[in-house]
Amino acid sequence: MTTHSIVRPPPSGRSGSDFARLSRKIADAGLMSRRPGYYALRITVVAGLYVGGWATVALLGDSWWTLTVAAFLAIVFGQVALLAHDAAHRQVFRRRRASEVSGRIAGAGIGMGYGWWQDKHTRHHANPNHEDLDPDLDPDLLVWSQDQARVATGLPRLIGRYQAFLFFPLLTLEGFNLHVSSVRALANRSLKHRTLDGVLLFAHFAVYLTVLFWLLPLGMAIAFLAVHQCLFGVYLGSLFAPNHKGMPILKGEDRPDFLRRQVLTSRNVRGGRLTDIALGGLNHQIEHHLFPSMPSPNLRRARTIVRRHCEDLGVDYVETGLITSYRLALVSLHEAGAPLRKTRVPA
To answer: Cα dist. 57→53, 64, 66, 91, 290 in Å?
Structure first.
């Protein structure tokens, strides 16, 4: 996708107060208040489904029906990841220690290095869709802009030509990538609590593999692992793909004020309560980026306030259906790879 330029805020100095005025509206509506009852219920349900899924695997044992449970647990793992996300943003608990403990427990449950992910995600929130500063736009496998495509080498150069067609198939590897990236991050000495993260990671791998190969025959265990991890990757990738892909990409010194930086690079997904559950509130991406610590059940109510505020300011507020959001993301990927299709890629 070609890098877009962001409309600069007016030079009157008023732009610095745009977010402050919105914050007061949100605070007056009580939308930053914790929701302990909601999260107690959500954690209980997800934990019950997690334990119930593995208990079903044990009960079924040597049966190919366990592959249906693998698909079910892929969704449950995605929901655990969403809980880890909310905990990291202090949506669940106000205090840092409680947030970190709960986030690490959730991360350990799905084989994710909490410290690595939190560092990466924090940098993304600070500079969403910034080609130089957002780690989610690193061209490690795909290219996200035509500028990246022109200098791409290795796999990004090879894959980038047809990456729009390969995007969803490649998501089947995202679960494995989550584990590998978490392990690789342990070599980073600047990572806080990396020893603890390492212990939790390898404890997860040990328990996960032991349970599978103890309960199931070898071939069935491998099939379970493949179905579970591949579908988990597809679900995980599908949670985040609609949010920024296909939205304006910033570069260099192109850094508008906080409100515009968050709103103009994000896209909401329309839908009802089922969409809220499936996407964990990330369908209200604009509101989440403006107020990361807002409990996810409050985001739907915040949407009306934020949208009206953006309309008053003349700031584009983008919202589409889920299928349209995926289509826009794929169109963006196809456009980003255009320079590679004009260049012969050596075999």
So the answer is: 6, 10, 6, 32, 41
Tens digit of each residue's pLDDT (9 = 90 or more) over 250-283? 998 888 999 999 999 999 999 999 999 999 999 9
CB 146 within 8 A of CB 2: yes
Report if pTM > 0.70.
Answer: yes
Q: Are 339 and 163 within 8 A, CB to CB?
A: no
What per-residue confidence (pLDDT) applies to 84? 96
Q: What's the first-to-final CA gap in the chain, in angstroms?
A: 25
Q: Which pLDDT score, from 0 to 100, does residue 343 have?
A: 61
d(CA 270, CA 276): 9
- Mean pLDDT for all residues in the chain: 92
294-310 residue pLDDT tens: 999 999 999 999 999 99
Hunting for tokens 């070609």 — which residue is that? 2
SS3 content of the chain, % helix, strand, coil (to 5): 70, 0, 30
Cβ neighbours for 281, distance < 8 A, ≥ 6 positions apart:
82, 86, 288, 296, 297, 299
> HSE-up of 38 (CA within 13 Å, CB side)?
15
Q: Exposed, middle or buried: residue 96 (CB in 10 Å: 0-12, 13-18, 19+)?
A: exposed
Residue 57: half-sphere exposure toward Cβ, Cα within 13 Å: 25
Phi, psi of 320 (to 5 degrees): -135, 175
The angle subtended at Cα 242 by Cα 237 and Cα 245, nearest 5°, is 95
Strands 319-320 and 268-269: parallel
Which pLDDT value is given to residue 242? Answer: 86
**Nearest CA to 242 among 287, 284, 184?**
284
Decide if pLDDT at 16 tops 90: no
Other beta carbons within 10 angstroms of residue 110's beta carbon come to 24
- Token readout for 283 is 């369908």
